[in-house]
Write a structure and sequence with these properties.
By secondary structure, the protein is an all-alpha fold. It is about 25% helix and about 0% strand. It is built from one helix and no strands. The longest helix has 14 residues. It is flat and about 35 Å long.
Length: about 50
């Protein structure tokens, strides 16, 4: 996980998938780790936050 990805619209798809798997009875274990941001444009789809 990178700070530059926080609140990117792609997060919603990931969280929806995890919720779907959990709701279907699959037990999940998530191990998040933080790494340094990079110079890519990834994680830039956050304009929806301004609405």
């Amino acid at each position: 996980m990178k700070n530059q990805y926080v609140a990117d619209v792609g997060d919603f798809g990931k969280y929806a998938l995890l919720k779907y798997l959990e709701d279907s009875g699959i037990k999940l274990g998530i191990n998040w780790y933080l790494i340094e941001d990079d110079d890519t444009n990834d994680g830039q789809i956050v304009a929806y936050l301004e609405n």
